[in-house]
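Hypothesis: this fold can be encoded by more than one sequence.
Test: take the structure tokens below, design a sequence, compare later.
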């Protein structure tokens, strides 16, 4: 019996954070909006229904925050996710700046994933705003593939889009193809509110003319190296001899580039993936000195440990290795980690061992960022024993008595 041909969808919510904010402030629809910065700096106060809200403008921002996302009118002005807010203010000074509201984003994320799973239960979670969906065994999918691929598959994809819209009030873009690599690429071809269906025989006409950088996995550095070889489009990459790619990029990445350009990808949709680590970090609005600003840093550090502990508890994990991350004012980054005798998810234990990690790094220079990570994760019911708390009394994190190299 011939195995059924795969039908994989990639669903990507359109400007997700910004779109959720527009549900709260529908009067801002069509305006350039940037999401990022702290609630205090971005003017995040809400008002009773019906009262006008005075929103902050990007030109008034002062700090080192970055854009998390932006509406499409804002993107048309040249701003994009990952760009510093101060730089963005030069390009779009009148854009509205809204703070992030992760509780609301997570709520809408759960809503859209739940309704998709009711139609197609084989779903791979790829983040708060995107998923892969295996449609192969959804009733009618094979008939759509074998009989009327453009009509039948589109009808199935529209069911998903309509369900997401009804559940959330938001739009999404979907790419439906034979594999994950092509689905990811196609979901971005017709944004926002897009629907792209592509079959294998359409790769030369629809995929090969696109820039090579459109393939997920070809970053800026790899794209520069391809350009140096005269390779600018996916079609040019597909036409490049394999031995040339192997010589330039090595065996593993060279083979991958060759396969990707030809639309080959046999990765399955994975419904569950064990996390390797959980972490929390924060970038300060101004550089903080470990001793001069210890009154500020100590509660921040403790809160990071508590947040990691809460993440572990929510997902029912314990961790064996605690790590810290520091970025100094000269952008140098240092990480340290220690493995505990028994795994834990207790905030006090994480805090204590993370503090011990800090004793191994210099704390005589101002900090831009501080982070805490737990690795060596185990499901709680698989842990052999509960971690034992060291009875040594806890000292404040940035205590001068710890010396110059705590």
């Amino acid at each position: 019996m011939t195995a059924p041909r795969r039908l994989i969808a990639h669903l990507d919510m359109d400007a997700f954070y910004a779109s959720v904010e527009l549900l709260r402030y529908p009067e801002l629809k069509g305006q350039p909006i940037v999401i990022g910065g702290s609630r205090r700096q971005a003017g995040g106060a809400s008002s009773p229904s019906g009262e006008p809200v005075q929103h902050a403008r990007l030109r008034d921002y002062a700090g080192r925050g970055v854009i998390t996302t932006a509406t499409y009118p804002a993107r048309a002005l040249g701003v994009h996710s990952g760009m510093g807010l101060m730089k963005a203010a030069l390009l779009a000074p009148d854009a509205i700046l809204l703070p992030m509201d992760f509780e609301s984003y997570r709520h809408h994320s759960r809503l859209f994933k739940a309704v998709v799973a009711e139609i197609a239960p084989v779903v791979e979670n790829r983040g708060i705003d995107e998923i892969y969906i295996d449609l192969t065994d959804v009733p009618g999918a094979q008939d759509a593939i074998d009989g009327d691929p453009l009509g039948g598959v589109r009808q199935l994809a529209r069911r998903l889009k309509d369900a997401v819209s009804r559940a959330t009030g938001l739009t999404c873009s979907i790419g439906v193809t034979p594999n994950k690599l092509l689905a990811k690429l196609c979901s971005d071809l017709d944004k926002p509110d897009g629907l792209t269906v592509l079959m294998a025989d359409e790769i030369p006409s629809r995929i090969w003319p696109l820039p090579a950088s459109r393939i997920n996995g070809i970053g800026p550095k790899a794209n520069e190296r391809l350009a140096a070889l005269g390779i600018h489009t996916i079609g040019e990459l597909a036409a490049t001899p394999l031995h040339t790619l192997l010589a330039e990029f090595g065996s593993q990445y060279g083979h991958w580039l060759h396969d990707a350009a030809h639309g080959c990808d046999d990765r399955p949709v994975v419904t569950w993936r064990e996390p390797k680590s959980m972490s929390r970090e924060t970038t300060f609005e101004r550089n903080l000195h470990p001793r001069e600003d210890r009154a500020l840093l100590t509660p921040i550090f403790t809160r990071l440990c508590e947040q990691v502990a809460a993440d572990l508890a929510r997902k029912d994990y314990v961790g064996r290795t605690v790590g810290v991350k520091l970025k100094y004012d000269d952008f140098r980054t240092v990480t340290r980690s220690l493995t505990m005798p028994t795994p834990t998810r207790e905030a006090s234990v994480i805090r204590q061992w993370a503090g011990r990690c800090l004793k191994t790094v210099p704390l005589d220079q101002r900090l831009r960022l501080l982070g805490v990570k737990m690795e060596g994760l185990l499901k709680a019911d698989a842990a052999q024993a509960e971690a034992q708390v060291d009875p040594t009394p806890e000292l404040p994190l940035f205590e001068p008595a710890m010396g110059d190299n705590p």
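Confidence is low (pLDDT under 50) at residues 44-50, 384-395, 399-406. Residues 294-314 form the longest helix (21 residues).
Hypothesis status: open.
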